[in-house]
Amino acid sequence: MMAEDIQHNQKANFNGLTKSAKSGASKKLTIKNFKDRPELTDSYTEDTWIKLRDAVSAIQNSTSIKYNLEELYQAVENLCSYKVSPVLYKQLRQVCEDHIQAQIHQFREYPSSVMGHFLSFLKRMNRCWQDHCSQTIMIRSIFLFLDRTYILQNSLLPSIWDTGLELFRTHIVSDGAVQSRTVEGILEQIERERNGETVDRSLLRSLLGMLSDLQVYKDSFEQRFLTETNRLYAAEGQRLMQERDVRSFLPNSHTDALHMLEKQLLGEHMNAILQKGLWMLLDENRVCELTLLYELLSKVKGGLMTLLQAWRDYIKSFGGEIVSSPEKDKELVQELLDFKDKMDHVTQRCFQRNDNFINAMKEAFENFINKRPNKPAELIAKYVDSKLRAGNKEATEEELERILDKIMIIFRFIHGKDVFEAFYKKDLAKRLLVGKSASVDAEKSMLSKLKHECGAAFTSKLEGMFKDMELSKDIMIQFKQVCVRRYILLNTQSASQMTHYTLSLSLEMLVCKLFYLGKHSGRKLQWQPTLGHAVLKTEFKEGKKELQVSLFQTLVLLMFNESDEYSVEEIRTATGIEDGELKRTLQSLACGKARVLNKMPRGKDVEDADRFHFNSDFTHKLFRIKINQIQMKETVEEQVSTTERVFQDRQYQIDAALVRIMKMRKTLSHNLLVSELYNQLKFPVKPADLKKRIESLIDRDYMERDKENPNQYHYVA
User: Boundaries of each Cullin family profile domain copy (predicted)?
Assistant: First the structure.
């Protein structure tokens, strides 16, 4: 195409672009709606297209672009917003096609009589292909808005990248002479290597990748390659038959042929096969293909090690995405369990339970699960809590046991097990105190697993909770004998780290306190109102009923022994319950299903001006009625408090380990001290935190710096 023709076409294109803009722009797409966009005019549209065309031309000719890339991107967005996308896409394609058509001449006119012309030709073809790919990527970055809007919405249109591939295939590679010379050149290089010569493998890999990306590999190259390979083996067979007798020919030729096949078909393309296909096979759980891949690569030198590394990288990448997405925290543990099951299945079915692959999987899991410190440990503890709570009907006892076993496998990978312990301990206390544990056997089974994994010290406090519960039952029996009208569950140790409240106790509850202190002199009793519960006997017009209520509900209801009506302020003053907790308690008694109190005025929310009176008309078909407390979900403050308590405990452990090491070694350099400290600690810690603890011990005179060498420490007896 002559330069004059190109200019003529471009001018016609400007007019078409402008005309389309005029007819396609709606009233909504005006300057009023897009204040930062210029008004659409023939001049603006033509100038914009010239600017974009010049930028594309500069990219194709590897010259500097006159305009700012952000400005070019904005220009494309403006044209697309004015409904000229179809013409813009058509013109972009035409510019790209004109450029690619001009490239074919350098290959058609390439001299075939020059010595080594095939290699020179292949290098030129590869350079042209690489330039085309980089240019297409750059052009797409400018026209990205067009690619992601108009083209994406039209399924029949190929993307800008696919358009580039299509044009290169149509005008370059599909040319008969060019394709023939390219294939001949590749086969020549392969034959040279088979004959022992050194060839440029990266060049061959790039060109074969080009044929594959352009989807012409099978039609243009594969059959020729297999034919040449067949010819090679036929010639090799003739040579061996002439040089050797039958006894040596049969085994040797079989072995040599196999080795040659494995090397050429697998060994030479091993990395490419894994890069292009392994992750897809694992994502889609293609068991048969993965099994075949393992068997084939096991026959190639270094094949399994290459597969092992790719397998490890896949697990780290896929698992890292699971762990590093806070928005998916609710499903994190279940996704980890499912992923682990899937990888176990692959190692057993496809990788023949190879120990190296199993160990690589464990290493990869440990690596990615600790990329996000502490949070996985917390979420695993909460997941266990959800499975061990009463009301979990998802699994039978046998299925629950299997789930706990799987959780323990994930638990082993966690470095910060003390974080798991803190959250597990808090949740276990709640399950036991409010009677929400699904199964005592399951609870003790989980403790046994933790004890086996982490030792007796790890579970000693957890086991103590069960002893406290047994002791509490004995106290309850004795209390019932003293006061049969009312009984309340007391506990002083299991939830010692829960939030404490200062409450105004009723006379009945003071009786409970006095009873407990009479049994255990010298102890301090702390109420845990969020975890305690009571059974109150009461009389309605319908008859006698028993109400199973929380400790907060108990405090409120017992007030109505003295009067039939109270305001919110009167109840708050009398009970000392915190405002938010009080309103939730009154809601549960007056706005829930079992309304033993009436609220005036009626409504779902409790306001400070509301008044409450005893509902003597209350009716219910059951004799004992459980009134559920409106529970507030675990707050951010509670999570932070638990985490901070873990960090505080870690500081004590670091201090103890430092003193223990220095007391034994007397004098140590900083690096040796830190090294020994890492060997003793069972949780991850940053060097900066260790330095702070060392400084703290120096300030408290447990150790001191050497006066001449500040990087050396001495123990202070």
Answer: 375-590
DSSP 437: B
Cβ–Cβ under 8 Å, residues 388 and 403: no
User: Tokens representing 441?
Assistant: 């056997």
Q: Which of 305, 411, 408 is nearest to 354 (CA)?
A: 305
Q: What confidence score (pLDDT) does residue 487 get?
A: 38
List C-alpha distances in Å: 303 to 151, 295, 296: 42, 10, 8
Torsion over CA: 657, 663, 664, 668 (sign): positive
**Among 339, 240, 345, 330, which residue's Cα sits nearest to residue 290?**
345
pLDDT of residue 486: 42
- The length of the chain, given as a count of residues: 717
Q: What is the pLDDT of residue 711?
A: 86
Convert 532-546 to b/e letters by CB count within 10 Å (16 or more is b): bbbebebeeeeeebe
Q: What is the DSSP string of 15-79?
A: HHHHHHHHHH--TTSSTTT-TTSPPP-HHHHHHHHHHHHHHHHHHHTT---SS-HHHHHHHHHHH
pLDDT of residue 693: 87
First-last CA distance in the chain:
93
Give the pLDDT of residue 277: 83
CB count, 10 Å around CB of 222?
A: 12
Q: What is the pLDDT of residue 234?
A: 76
Residue with structure tokens 């305690």? Answer: 532
The first and second tokens of residue 584, run together, are 């939730």
Would the pTM of this model clear 0.70, i.e. be above it? no
Is there a contact between 488 and 534 (Cβ–Cβ < 8 Å)?
yes
Contacts for 691-700: CB closer than 8 Å, 24+ residues apart? 693/651, 693/654, 693/655, 693/658, 694/658, 694/670, 696/655, 697/655, 697/658, 697/659
Q: Are 282 and 290 in contact (CB under 8 A)?
A: yes
pLDDT score of 392? 64
The closest of 91, 72, 206 to 138, measured between CA atoms, is 72
Half-sphere CA count of 432, side-chain side, radius 13 A: 28
Tell me 524's DSSP state. Answer: -
- Integer Cα distance of 50 and 72 in angstroms: 11
Whether the bond into 687 is cis, omega within 30 of 0: no
pLDDT at residue 93 in the model: 93
